[in-house]
Description:
mainly alpha
Amino acid sequence: MDARPVPVGASRPSPRANRAHCDAFAARRYRQAYQAVRASVRRAVAVEPPGAAAEADHRTWYREGGAFPVRPA
């Protein structure tokens, strides 16, 4: 457990609930990254050269997927 104070009337989530929350958050980020990559591939196939599409959208893929790993507290 970390040493941060708990506000009056609040309780810490159980480790299992915290882990489930972290897993759900990571799944959401992976889904967003997947959707961003899919949109880029569609655009690359239909409109612009694949290299240009990847270069333009790489930052978005990284941001949507999460630049920092999710760590259980």
